[in-house]
Design goal:
The protein has about 525 residues and is an alpha/beta fold.
Length: about 525
């Protein structure tokens, strides 16, 4: 659709946005963005229709004001341009931003970044725009990883960082931040485990007996409780992968009772095998209908293996061979075209350099904060020893300082872990991602498990209707590789008269947008 006016006149809407107050205070204010856009419009003879956004709104999701702006430019036929300071001010949603861009393009509306001079009327320019959108989303996810690393460190230390499972409550009186207590439902949960382990009762009968004790609970909840090792003093969490760690919380039942309740130890004393090389996807893939993990079994007469869910009335059942073939196809999507490898590696190096620099700065600030707390602690101890402050004041002050030091220590451990991984061979990582499918196919059971939890940390769902997998969450770096590869193939398909020349994309300002003249 052609929206250009007389003499190809461009009419633009200026879109400005900051995500946080920190951005507004850090030379990226709304005024700075608006001035840069107005200066660009004046230099290039672009008429300004209006200004949209001009507020604090996250670009991680397409917010209300953003959607209103898209609706406005779609309806007003004279508008054919959206001016933004940089593409990450337009959106940081990655694939969603790419879809929005294509939608606007179909309406005859062009997005211009005043600090990133890209000609998006050719295949190379459109591809570069997509790369920037994907890296903006990747940068957001790197920040998210900092929080995830703290959660993992907390779990590895045996502490539960979020709302505790039913049967437990947070001990508000404890000096320790994550200390848990068994609440009034604890004895009833212990009874449920013993009814299952000692009397082999089904969940429906266990629920009936618990109702007599005043707890109205459904069989699905009881099933979840009985399968959770948290109640025997251990922690299992998707952030830990296959690992189960010893928790610092009190156990409601002993480990033997937990195993017998789950059939891990039979009454004759035999232990069931926990590892079956023929079915590496068990406890990794869920049934999309009931949400239950799929388990593996063998039809010995045919010597064939299958996966199934054990939910009564659902019974999703599928050949292991088919599911393994589909999984191989899924991992094959992370192959990277040779033409993309160098540009992707260079951009990753630049982003990781910034990421690790921020981690070092945070680590330096935390160590300085710890030194201050240590000094204050010594001063308080000295004053108490000299009789300058009474014991009650000393006790409260010492407790507060110890809590601060514990929290600072946990944060330092998180950032030290990040800093220890600074040497990353991005080119080697990209090459490995291209061979993930083969590594999984030829690898040992342990190798397959590691790859599965690396790529899909929360597992997958098997959709019976489509006869294929549905992804829940995906490794962010690998998601970036797949998205770049897909974008490249699309750009290559859409090329017109000349080949896709990536050397033009790499030349110039590199990853950081040029800002001269602003």
């Amino acid at each position: 659709m052609d929206r250009t006016g007389p003499q190809d006149q461009k009419v633009a809407v200026i879109w400005t946005r900051v995500s946080t107050k920190e951005q507004a205070d850090n030379n990226l204010s709304l005024e700075t963005q608006e001035k840069a856009c107005r200066d660009y419009a004046e230099r290039n003879g672009i008429e300004i229709d209006c200004i949209k956004g001009n507020t604090n709104e996250s670009a991680k999701t397409e917010g209300k004001l953003f959607r209103e702006m898209i609706a406005y430019v779609s309806l007003h036929k004279r508008v054919n341009t959206i001016l933004v300071y940089s593409l990450d001010r337009f959106s940081r949603t990655g694939p969603e931003a790419m879809v929005t861009k294509e939608y606007l393009k179909s309406k005859g509306i062009n997005i211009i970044s005043v600090t990133q001079p890209i000609d998006n009327n050719n295949a190379a320019g459109a591809f570069m725009e997509n790369i920037i959108f994907l890296f903006s989303q990747f940068e957001n996810n790197l920040r998210k990883d900092k929080c995830t690393a703290g959660m993992i460190a907390c779990l590895e230390n045996g502490d539960w960082y979020s709302a505790p499972p039913v049967g437990y409550k947070i001990d508000r009186t404890s000096v320790k931040k994550h200390q848990l207590l068994i609440d009034e439902k604890g004895p009833l949960i212990a009874k449920a485990f013993h009814l299952k382990a000692d009397e082999l009762l089904p969940e429906t009968e266990i629920c009936r007996r618990l109702r007599l004790d005043g707890w109205d609970v459904c069989k699905q909840r009881i099933s979840q409780i009985l399968h959770n090792p948290f109640y025997c003093g251990k922690i299992r969490h998707h952030l830990l992968g296959d690992r189960i760690v010893r928790g610092n919380h009190p156990a409601i039942v002993d480990e033997d009772t937990y195993k017998r309740a789950n059939g891990l130890v039979t009454h004759s004393g035999h232990t069931h095998a926990g590892e079956t090389p023929q079915t590496p996807l068990k406890r990794h893939v869920r049934c999309s209908v009931c949400g239950c993990y799929m388990t593996g079994y063998e039809v010995k007469k045919k010597q064939l293996w299958y996966y199934k869910c054990n939910t009564v009335g659902c019974r999703c059942n599928k050949s292991a061979r088919t599911m393994h073939e589909r999984y191989y196809e899924l991992l094959s999507q992370y192959q990277m075209p040779q033409a993309c490898m160098e540009i992707l590696a260079d951009m990753l190096d630049a982003k990781l350099k910034t990421y690790f620099a921020e981690a070092e700065e945070n680590l330096k600030a935390l160590r300085s904060k710890r030194t201050v707390c240590d000094t204050q602690k010594k001063e308080v101890m000295t004053k108490f020893g000299l009789g300058v402050i009474p014991e009650d004041v000393y006790t409260v002050t010492r407790k507060n300082l110890d809590e601060q030091l514990d929290e600072i220590g946990a944060e330092i451990a998180t950032f030290e872990k990040q800093s220890s991984n600074q040497v990353i061979d991005t080119r080697k990582a990209i090459l490995i991602s291209c061979k993930l499918a083969d590594y999984w196919k030829e690898g040992t059971y342990e190798t397959k498990q590691n790859i599965q939890h690396l790529v899909f940390p929360d597992g997958l769902h098997w959709d019976r209707e489509s006869d294929n997998y549905r992804t829940v969450t995906e490794n962010e770096a690998l998601k970036l590789f797949r998205s770049v590869s897909s974008s490249y193939k699309t750009a290559k398909t859409q090329k017109k008269d000349k080949p896709l020349d990536l050397s033009l994309v790499v030349a110039g300002g590199g990853l950081e947008p040029p800002t001269s003249g602003l």
